[in-house]
Amino acid sequence: MKELEIVVKNDTGLHSRPADVFVRTAKLFESKITVSKGEKTANAKTIIKVILLNVSQDDAIKITAEGPDEDAAVEELKLLIESDFEKINDAVKI
To answer: Is the C-alpha dihedral spanning 14, 20, 25, 27 positive or negative?
Structure first.
């Protein structure tokens, strides 16, 4: 299992477009991926669950991945958040 805690700097947090890009990126991986904010945890591959976490700018979240590509999954989601959701994998088109 791979875990990472990171602060979301995007001004809209994980709402609408950023949540969509986050979920689309998570779906590229076979591993089970969850995202947590405080006591709430959501399947990172389900848009409504991610939006319901109510992640705002400057909130800390924890990303957890478990499976054969867990390292790559966590790294890609980390890069996505650090790039302010601008680094979009070629397979993730809006």
So the answer is: positive
